[in-house]
Amino acid sequence: MRTLRTVGELRAALEPARRAGRTIGLVPTMGALHEGHLSLIVRARSQCDLVVVSLFVNPAQFNEHADLDRYPRQEDRDRGLAAQAGADLLFAPTREEVYPAGFSTSVEVLGLTDRLEGAVRGSAHFRGVTTVVTKLLNMVAPDIAYFGQKDAQQVIVIRRLVEDLNVAVRIEECPTVRESDGLAMSSRNAHLSPDERTRALALHRALAAAGAAVSDGELSADALIRAARDAMTPFDVEPEYLALVSPDTLETVSRLDEPALLAIAARVGATRLIDNVTLYPDVRSNPQQPNPREAQAICSA
Ligand code: PAF
Question: Which one of 154, 174, 188, 272 would you pick to mutate in the ligand 1 pocket, going by the greatest count of ligand atoms within 8 A of its CB?
C-alpha cells in the first residue's frame, strides 16, 4: 500500500484506474483506526476495485483545542491496519496541503447542523466536517464513500451536502461496530480510565433500554427517553442530549410512528462520547445488522 501526501500524487496514482473505468472507494478517517474504521475498509474492498483511505486530523472540526491536541496520532500503526483490511492507497496530507495559505472557503449545510451535535458543539464543527469532506470528495472523486452509523448526524448531513451540490458519489452508511459489552468503538475510548470505561456503558445501556421498551409496545418518545435515562442512573452519567428524532430532518418526534433515531451524547470524565440506534415501531421490521467480525479479527491479530 502506497502512502501519498499531496493531491498531485493522489490524482496521478488514481488516473490509470479511473481511465480503465475501475470503481474507486474512499474511506475518510482521522486516523487512530479501530474496528469500526476497518469494517468500512473491508466493505469498500468488497465493493470497489481500488480503495483509498484518507488520514487527516482535521483541525477545523474540533471545537476544543485540548481535544485536538490529545487526539491520538499513530500513522505507522494505522498504515499497517489499513493495508491489512485491504486498502490500496493511504492519503495522508499535511495541514498545509489541505488548508494552504490564503484558504478562505467553507461549505455549510444549514438546518440539519443546528441540532444534536451542532447545538452542543456549535456551527463550526459541522462546517469543518462538511468543508473537509467536500475537499476529500473533490480530491479523490470516488464512486462510493463510506461512513459509520455511529456518527449518524454526520452521515445525514453529508448525504444532504452531496445531493445539494450534485456530487457524483454514493454515500454508504455502515453499521456501528461495538465492543462485546456494547460500547460503540471510538478513537476517544482510548482516553477512558478503567472506571470511566465501565461508566461509558451508560450510553449503550440507555439505547438498549429504549429498544426493550419498544419491544414491550411503548411508542411515546417521553416514555422511551425516560426508560433510557433510568438505565443511565447506576452509571452516574448524565446525557448532554438524549433525543428521538426523524432520520430525515433530525427534528424531535413525539411518537415512534415511523422509524426514528434515538441519539445520545454524554461526557464520561473528560471524554465526550456519542451513540445512537434506529428504533422501529414494528420491531419485526428492524433489520438485523451483523457486527462485522472480519474487522475485529484484523484489530486483535
Ligand atoms: O468521521 C470522521 O472521522 C471525520 O469527521 C471525517 C469524516 C473523516 C472528516 O474529518
Answer: 154
Select the CATH number that applies to the domain covering 2-174 from these four: 3.30.70.260, 3.40.50.1970, 3.40.50.300, 3.40.50.620: 3.40.50.620
Task: List, in sequence order, the alpha helices (H) in the chain.
Answer: 7-19, 35-47, 65-69, 75-85, 95-98, 117-121, 123-140, 152-164, 194-199, 201-215, 221-232, 293-300
Instruction: List all residues 6 or more positions away from 227 whose beta carbon is below 8 Å from its beta carbon.
Output: 209, 210, 212, 213, 218
Looking at the chain, how many residues does it have?
301
45-92 tens-digit pLDDT: 999 999 999 999 999 999 888 888 888 889 999 999 999 999 999 999
Q: State pTM to two decimals.
A: 0.94
